[in-house]
């Protein structure tokens, strides 16, 4: 069997991202390993109640991993929210919105009813998109 273990976000600053995901969102550190000989840090966080999956907070690569132009271009795309989206689910979107707002998360929009559920979104400090959804009962027959 093959299963998803981790997903990955490019981040501008691993320490800033770590503080956001652990202190603001309340997640836990799954792995924080520095490989000095490679000048590389493997940093993984995840929701406390979901131990089987993590989010790798990967630094935007810099030379010599990639050239300076590509590094700058990727950093700009991430900052604009084009680096990807993480989809989170909750049982109560309004309660999660209220709790995270009180912790300092700045949302893009209030919880809004959609055909699939109640949905809102925010960005992490690097600009990555995070959607938070209270999924409604879904039937493939529903249009």
Summary, kept brief:
Residues 3-135 form the VOC domain. The protein has 143 residues and is α/β, with parallel strands linked by helices.
Protein described:
The protein is of the alpha/beta class. The protein starts with 5 loop residues before the first strand and ends in an 8-residue tail after the last strand. The longest helix is centred in the middle third of the chain and has 12 residues, at 68-79. 23% of the residues lie in helices and 38% in strands. The radius of gyration is 17 Å and the shape is globular. It has a single domain, classed as 2,3-Dihydroxybiphenyl 1,2-Dioxygenase, domain 1 (Roll), CATH 3.10.180. The strands form 2 sheets. A 4-stranded mixed beta sheet has the order 1-4-3-2, with helices on one face. A 4-stranded mixed beta sheet has the order 5-8-7-6.
Structure characteristics:
143 residues, alpha/beta, 2,3-Dihydroxybiphenyl 1,2-Dioxygenase, domain 1, four-stranded mixed beta sheet, 3 helices, VOC_core
